[in-house]
Fold each of these.
Amino acid sequence: MLPGNAIFRMLLLIGFSTPVCTFAQQQDTIRYSLILTGNIKGEKKVIETSPGMFESWYQYNDRGRGDSLHTIYRQDSDGFPTYVHAIGKDYFKKPISEDFSLKDGVATWKNTAENESRPVTGKAFYTCLNGESGNMIKALKAGQHKIKLLPFGEATLEVVQQHKAGDQQLQLCRISGMYYTPEYIWADEKNVTFGYIGDWFSMIRKGYEPYVKELLAVQQKIERQHDSQLAKTIPEKVNGDILIRDVTLFDAEKATLLPHTDVLIGAGKIKAVSVGKPITAKAARIVEGRGQTLLPGFWDMHVHMGDGPEGIMHIAAGVTHTRDMGNDTSLLTLRKEIDNGELIGPHLEVISGLIDGAGPMAAPTGILIHNEEEGKKFVRMFADKGYDQIKLYSSIKPEWVKPLIAEAKKYHMRVCGHIPAFMTAAQAIEAGYNEVTHMNMLLLNFFGDTIDTRTPQRFAIPAQRAASLDLNSAPVKEFIALMKSRNIASDPTLVAFEPMLTGRDGVIEEKNKDIITHFPLQIQRGMRAGGSGLPVPPGMDTTYIQSFGVFLKLTKLLYDSGIRIVAGTDGTAGFDYQRELELYVKAGIPAEKVLQLATFGTAEYTGKSKELGSIKVGKTADMVLVAGDPVQHISNIRKTKLVIKNGVIYDPAKLYKAISVVPF
């Protein structure tokens, strides 16, 4: 699985799981192309049917998933919406709708999560959950670059760059107040949206697709100035030693807590660890650790790193190491920028070269191949570039798997990934897989080799059938024995499936219930809307929830059977990682063992336990200080108070404030 609608919609000013408005047009007809990693995946058309009245159609297809929306809306002379009616389907093809009207000073709106009415004084811009409304850029300029939002909040505008693309004179607009960090919108001279440009997803006017790379380069230069400034001002580089006093230390190698411990750090390394006896050496920076727990830095073993706030979100959560599971070659540059201190982010310890078969259901990133020999060539290319492993995806033909793995082994590269269509996990393991990605891919093993894992079947079948799977059956025992005999690891990404199987419209997802008030208001609104789950067939609501229970039970069974679990998310940086660890505890794995597998266990798995993974003398100073005791209450890992990466101190409160999040 690769980043889905949440990440792409983020670039469209859309919240965690449900849309926020896009920016409307003012010409008779404008068409846009929707581009995912260089491939056109949909289109949008906007028609001005009469002065101030618009009709739009939006259609996006991502391997059988994707939104579709038909919207009719009206805006006043300043671009503020006065009427909206939208109907369509969300990313997982569930029906959605939204209505809004402003009449006689009263705003009324209804959508999948809200049904409200309130008086409005002055101008206010309604932001849709499902649909689009008005022209925000025009409204912002009419409001002196600052406007009130409905239901709450405010947005501000700054025009940061002028640029010509072909015959179009464009302005790059930076809009703040909608998301963690400012959003960038390209508009023409009439303040009509020209496009949204991102490293994964872009929307641009039809006929101007060749300008995406050029506009992205201009935009990223502006974004980098902001990000680079944060990288200069937030990290604290101490000129001398750092002493953490009287802290409870989590010994990740033994999975035990050591109270009243002092830790001395210098030149990026751990110089001394003293349990029960204070360290008397002088230090340039002293951190009082009483009432807090010091753990090694966490490892998120399933990310797809990109631009934006991700790096900050990882570090603020204490994630100092990541494994990228599929990206474009710009990842190598990103890794260098982070390591050089130009950007804030975790160290990319492992990067994966993703290979998939070409076709309409192919992965949105990585290398697409047409035959076995092409695959071998690209394995060699990834090896030459310094990639650490190969990830195979769902459109790879089963007969290619074994020879591609053999080629990877020549270069000492591990192989992991999805299970290709019409193949089982057992067959992939026997062909040489080292690791199976995502818990649904393991569960599909028990439902035959006729499943097309390129399609949403890979989600729907486990949702509908896992609840009835007997985990004590012979096939399950035989499969786990196969995994153990081949030393196969599992990257469950439970946090990716929890909302899919248990999310319901108008209900806050479990992962967000205790933390929702920390987020920007517009993101809170999306969280309250819920609804990021799969479409549930009639009579199967309980089955879907029970099936997720089997996801948890199988994770615990794998752990109890000696199968290595590596904690990864494939989701929202930082916050989803913390939920992933909470879910392991919910599954029944003891909290101290969860913390161990998330730190020392992963360092051991990646072959880096001599330098990383535990707080021992001589190792790299990567650690996170949290309030309270996460062994007693795993959710205390959210209460990060200090993060140290390579001996550099990061204050999570400053990091969170930089992305409009209330510190924990």
Amino acid sequence: MENIPWRISYYNIAVLLRVFMFVTIGLSVLVMAWGLARRYRLWRSGQPQVVSDRPLARLGRVFVYAVVQLRVLRQRYPAAMHLMIFWAMALLFIGTTLAAIDTDIFELLFRAKLLKGDFYLAYKVALDLAGLFGLIGLGLAVYRRYVQSSPRLNVDWRFNTTLPLLAFILLSGLVVEALRLAIQQPAWAPFSVVGYPISLLFRGGAEPGLRATHQAAWTIHFAAVAAFFVLIPWTNMAHIFTSPFNIFVAPFRARGALNPIPDLEQAERLGASRLTDFSWPQLASLDACTECGRCQAVCPAYEARQPLNPKYLILDLQHHMTAEGPRLLGRTDGAGGRAMVGDVIKPETLWACTTCYHCVYECPVLIDHVDAVVEMRRYLALMEGELPASLATTLTNIERAGNPWKQPRRKRTAWTQALDFEVPVMANVGEAEVLWWVGCAGSYDPRNQKVTRALAQILHAAGVNYAILGEEETCNGDPARRAGNEYLFQQLAQANIETLKQYKFKVILTQCPHCYNTLLNEYPQFGGDFQVMHHTQYIEALLAEQNISVRPDHDRGQQVTFHDPCYLGRYNDEYEAPRVLAAASGMQLVEMARSRDRAMCCGGGGARVWIEEEGDVRINRNRLAQIRATGAGQAAAACPFCLTMLEDARGALGADDLVIRDVAEIVADALVAPGQARPQDR
């Protein structure tokens, strides 16, 4: 094999050094396994949850989010940095595995070589490039964390240790290779595209000195690898294992559906006040955090200087789990300690969340912050009765009157009085193609009643066979569920489902994304399986099928920007229909810097619209500033809460020149009346 490139196993490495390497690496792997197993035991102290269903789908999800790293790719610099480090380590691990197979299987059992010829040359090129790009990736990481000093990134002993240690492992591996090449000087040395240039620095040195240096460098390299293995369970590098694991065990369900409390009437504990109240996959997710800060960067509450940082929500719970470890593992009786809700996580932190889902949407390892927030809210609402005063009043109104404003049921149809046509009521007609769920805001709030009448005009012009529930309609329960009052939500859901099942219809139409999400994604948990459409989707279909027509030059020359509602966009992936409607009357659509799935919340979700705010920095005002930055004279909305929050911000900031309309109003204002010539017919 003199003229064939091949790998020489343990070149210049004495037997004692090999034994040292095997013992050191073996012990370090055992320590690492013990540390990870201990964390696993902590996770299993949570509530049981099945994670063995749909195994192929779970593995596919691991491939998409852990291997391809789909969400990491959403940001260029971090994506380039992390992918270089990840694939460098992955390729070097594969290379080390192949080397072990070559030495311990092919040589010992078959007296043959795996790593030889062209395959070996390709192997050398790949591993050298992996080492090079790994070092570049680590350099980018150091620059970003220590030079740019991004506020979303932590700097502590863990990062101060693991980043230099990884760089040392990669660099020392290249030096070991370079020293070997300087001694051997094989003809195929240039295929070591990084090690070979370094080896030229050692050419001309005395061979005994080079051999001794090579052995020392080899020993130090593997000692560093062993140290890295030992550090993994106690540093940020634990995510190498915990993140893919969390991606695998994360539950499958619709984004907009919270977990119901089963057997609510018999449950002894409601919500989460202790770590053991969470499901065990939820506890696993606490250790999956990579501390990348993506959730922090997009959180509207954090940006508005409210007492919520989603990254530290998870990390504080993680640190609490570490502190509670002896109790969770049964080594102490658990007396004393800090209360999870109250001491570790403050109530004001929980009530600051808008449940906008942006933190969850950006998390590269599928941690669900919203689930944790709502579970702890449930404890406050159902076990302690501790809610913000204004929110408590709202929920009482919903419970007693069926709406947040405590308005009588007979006024649910008062908005119809300003129309010059009759709006059918389901109790009178018994059957309709479309059951229009008007919603509480659309029924009672004066500003949103205008949107309701605009939608009624559109349905009337299109000749849609529709009907409303009228006095039979009551709150869908979204504010109660997001506020943690699962008991009230389930009461409302079951009553509404019973009402809906009395009538025959094909589709439920709703103008509120919160109603839309609840009816579509959460009512099926209680047997309410209905086809549901948001009014943006339905109106777009009417336009596409030419059941209605608008004057395309009605608002020509004006610009409009669209604010994406969280519960329509991120929760339910509807971005196109409202934009079609916003531009239908001839306005030029101008996108905000943060739009579509990156859109910022208005501040009204998660029952926050019912909580009184204080302070000059508010979420809705921040969002209005982003609208103003586009230069558009009009802003379009598709949610009653968004409309309320944005108009409130407009008044507070004195932006009276900005026109804010629901997309239904834009279409209704430009509607071609029945009997008039359509624009295309003129």
Amino acid sequence: MDNAKEVEILDVGFLGQIFDASKEEIEKFIREEEKSIILDYEKIKSYLNNKQLDLLLNKTEKFLEQMSIYFSERLDRKVKVRIKNLPESLRYLRIRDIRSEHKDKLIQAEGIIKVSSEVRPFIIKTKYLHEDCGGEFWVENKNFVIEKPKKCPVCGGTKGKFIETDHETIDIQRLLIEEPADQIEKGEQPAQITVILKEDLCEPRMERKTLPGIRVKIYGIVKELKNSNLKAILDLYIDAIYIEPVDKDVEDISISPEDERKIRELANSTDVLSLIANSVAPGLYGKHYEMIKKAIALQLVSGGKRRKSVDERKNIHILILGDPGVGKSKLLRYVSEIAPKSKYVVGITSSSVGLTASVRKDEIFKGGWVLEAGALVLASGGLVCIDELDKLSTEELQSLHEAMEQQTITIDKANIHATLRTETAILAAANPKFGRWDKMKNIVDQIDLPPTIINRFDLIFVLVDEPNPQQDEAIVNELLKGLKEERKPPLDKDLLRKYIIYAKKIEPQWTNAALDIVKDFYIKLRSSSGEDTIPITTRQLMSIIRIAEASAKIRLSPVVTEDDVNLAKELLLYSLKEVGINPENNRLDIDIIMSGISSTQRQKLSKVLDIIKDLQKDFPDGVPLNEILNESKKYNLEEEKVKETIEKLLKEGYIYESGDKKYKAV
């Protein structure tokens, strides 16, 4: 009797008022044959007195259970009542602030889904037969553990076997959510918490709301779960009563009128790009860094919705190559700290899940699979810094292809099929595989990266550690000056972040004059090339467009002007001259970046391959090397170049070695 009174916490009059106020929700429930009715707090709050509000917040399960019973009786069908749209004043918590004091209480929290499991059946109660008396009874299972009966509630006996005869299941799914970037203060690591979804929250129609990388708002009850390893230590999780995607990202961080005034003043300064560039890693000096920092400043404000007409990304990807010890890692770490939404990953310690996403066994539910998001998914809409990109495995690099260009990751493994967003700018660094950068060799020969990854970067810069008395003295002076007084950047990190957020929202339009400059530049550069050399392709054309738009955004300009295009041209040509010059003819040759082979190398490959094929008629067991070299002299091909070409043909699989220094075409 006492238990019955404890459950009856809401009077019938109040329940009737809520029912009458929920006509739209009830009609939708009946029309769409749903399993639950979602009550909007804003519509029912006027009916709640202090006692009922306290019951909602502190005895949520009983509150909603009574609601569900009443609605089910009135509608003559089983109904699950849920609630949404609570104001933030009602126990809205950061994930890191959830404590044991919140156990069994209603809270609301936001996070980005990092892990999403399969939907699995969960036994909520089990039916037993007592062998001694023949009595049957149900036992509810709690904390994900099957409760074995020790006493028969029918006869009161404790002896004899209890035989399981039936069970009742519901669908269940596990999420792991991580604090969003706008809720993390300086120096904090994002906190995480497990969320359990049950019944209709796991329906197929909910699948798009629970993919990794999506930001969600959770309304739920905090519960405890025993840690399997340490029985005295409990884990907290949220038993969700409702979940909804949040169309809010780091760009929605509050910017005060005073902040906006400062931002506008900066934008109206003579050279806001240089001001922001000089605020990026102020401890790194040198002429090379001037262009790199300008490019990074533009990268930080790049991005936005893909163009429907050309379906092209707007994020800028940058690759920095160079000798060890020139500050690449320091630069990436600093940028990851000032970017409003970012992840920092080191290639040598990363895995494909660390970068993109993966499917793995569910260790919590002991069976099934979970979909886990990596850095590119979690930082979607922001920036990922990848240090030591060249140390990634082949499998991990392959997972980058789709993420960099299509800005999505497609997962199709086990029972999980999903497409995740990776609308992320990438700033990466890599070292030459022979220790030092050689200006006489092309980029593909010096970096352990495939051309298909290299050519997806909009800008590539090379940092070479060369003695330069004037530059070395300037760097030393700046470093020593920093020992005496603290060197502060022109803009502090907080204002810089807010400026980036503000600028990213700008969607500049193109003027006809700016478009004409892009067109003329592309056509003239293409027509100025030699017959067999291609200096630029449409991929670089799109890079110019992305960079020019970012230049307009950083000025907070509503239009892209001729100056923006000229800056984009300057940065692109600077980058291409660093890695796209053919050392044999000193011309721009985009094939070096696109395929790893220059146009002149391709001609040599073709000529040497033709020579081997012709000589193969006289040497069916394989053409000796000296015969190939002698024949090559007729075409003025240098001996060393021919040997290098043979190595490339072997590597590419066009020829094979049939004996000691004997070669045959495939």
